[in-house]
Amino acid sequence: MLTMKMQDGSTPSVYSRRIVMRMTVPLTLLGLLEREPRHGYDLKRDYDAFFGRDKPLSFGQVYSTLSRLARDGKVVISDPEAGAGPDRKRYVITDRGATEVGAWLTEPVAPEPHLQTVLFAKVTLALLLDRPAEQYLDTQRAAHMQRMRELTQVKRSGSLVDSLLADHALFHIEADLRWIDLTAARLDALAREVRNR
């Protein structure tokens, strides 16, 4: 996994938090199980490698999710394997689980207009409170540009997976930058509108 340091010493992730938050852990684990039966440890490792680099799953979340999937008839536990420690459970997807994964993979994700984004809320509040909205937009633009530079570096030195995820994040940042520029050009009109409500 590619790791790089940001100016503040933190390690950025290619992933947008929004992507991870919307990722449905149970269906993703079912999808990984559809490839082949797995132990909980193996599922966690694969999930973290593909989807959870920014926020790895805890073992507790993996096993509690697997317990709910078993309770709901979407996975079964095959014969436990004896080892040096406790017996290891191998999870197998059921027909019901596979049907659910198949349906999930064919459904489009609903486009979301993000009408109440944090960016919009901050600009509107700055205008309502007679604070420098233009300065906020300039600061936000600079933060977005810095993140674009970091993601571009990830694309140059990362794997194909890292590169594609960086592209996804870059496209979202580019859309935000277009919105920032458009809003900056309309600040006077927006100020009049929000103050007259």
TrEMBL record:
SUPFAM superfamilies: Winged helix' DNA-binding domain
The Transcription regulator PadR N-terminal domain, residue ranges: 29-101
Superkingdom of the source species: Bacteria
Record's protein name: PadR family transcriptional regulator
InterPro entries, sorted: Tscrpt_reg_PadR_N, WH-like_DNA-bd_sf, WH_DNA-bd_sf
Organism phylogeny: Bacteria, Bacillati, Actinomycetota, Actinomycetes, Micromonosporales
Pfam families linked to this entry: PadR
